[in-house]
Amino acid sequence: MDVIESDAIGRAVEALKGARAVVAITGAGISAESGVPTFRGSGGLWRTFRAEDLATPEAFARDPALVWEWYWWRRSRIAAARPNPGHLALARFEGRFPAFTLLTQNVDGLHVEAGSRDIIELHGNIWRARCTGEPRRVFDQRREMPGPDVPRCPCGALLRPDVVWFGEPLDPAAVDRAADAVRACDVLLVIGTSAVVYPVAALPSLARRGQAIVVEVNVDPTPLTAEADIVLRGPSGVILPEVERLL
């Protein structure tokens, strides 16, 4: 690390040493370090479909079998990934602070696999399915294999992936919990995400209004960079273990 990076890490460590409540927000960047493929953009085509063609309520209503075929394929790709040192460091952070909350925009379940427990999965989890008739009925499908038919709830209604699709709002209860944690935090870590999509985009500003220190961890500059108090430039799998080592 160069002098600037070392100085920034030192300031981040000092901020964390004095913190009682810490919140971390993670995005696609931390999962990319584990090899989780990006399903949006130029490399995100499946057959002739984009994610935006399939991850919608309308697509599911039109052809649930096609949508499920795509999700089984996505699960097969994600299954090869394992938590990286960044995921594992965040899981250990839970025991270092009186209050630590992890907010993630990722649906791959790698934070849970790494051992994180106080976690709010803002966009859901690709390994779960929920009933379309009774949405509160949720099923763990991690050990299930794809079948010839669209999966159904014991009540007879179709199951759908328990993720937030395009055009759907985030769970209001999850958003409220996230906002409450951010308002109360002393340090907000923003890791592998530019946090430009609302309502997550509002959280760094909410933290700063509460006098929290905002720390960005990212390999590239983002729209958040200019607003962050401390910027740690590099992969989270390198930076977070180093921060942990110095705490």
Annotate the secondary structure layout:
Elements: H1 3-17, E1 21-26, H2 28-32, H3 51-54, H4 57-62, H5 64-78, H6 85-93, E2 99-104, H7 110-114, E3 119-121, E4 124-131, E5 138-140, E6 159-163, H8 172-184, E7 187-191, H9 203-209, E8 213-218, E9 230-233, H10 236-246
Parallel strand pairs: 1-2, 1-7, 2-3, 7-8, 8-9
Antiparallel strand pairs: 4-5, 4-6
Helix pairs in contact: 1-10, 6-10, 8-9
Mean pLDDT: 92
Shape: elongated
Taking the alpha carbons of the first and last residues, their distance comes to 17 Å
CATH fold-level name of the largest domain: Rossmann fold
Which terms summarize this structure?
3-stranded antiparallel β-sheet; single chain; alpha/beta; 247 residues; 36% helix; 2 domains
Give an overview in words:
The protein is an alpha/beta fold and 247 residues long. It folds into two domains: 3-35 and 83-123 and 170-246, Rossmann fold, CATH 3.40.50.1220; 51-80 and 130-163, SIR2/SIRT2 'Small Domain'. It contains ten helices and nine strands. The chain has helices at residues 3-17, 28-32, 51-54, 57-62, 64-78, 85-93, 110-114, 172-184, 203-209, 236-246; strands spanning 21-26, 99-104, 119-121, 124-131, 138-140, 159-163, 187-191, 213-218, 230-233. A six-stranded parallel beta sheet has the order 3-2-1-7-8-9, with helices on both faces. Helix 6 (85-93) runs parallel beside helix 10 and helix 8 packs parallel to helix 9 (203-209). The longest helix is centred in the first third of the chain and has 15 residues, at 3-17. The chain is elongated and about 55 Å long. It starts with a helix and ends with a helix. The model has no long low-confidence stretch (mean pLDDT 92).
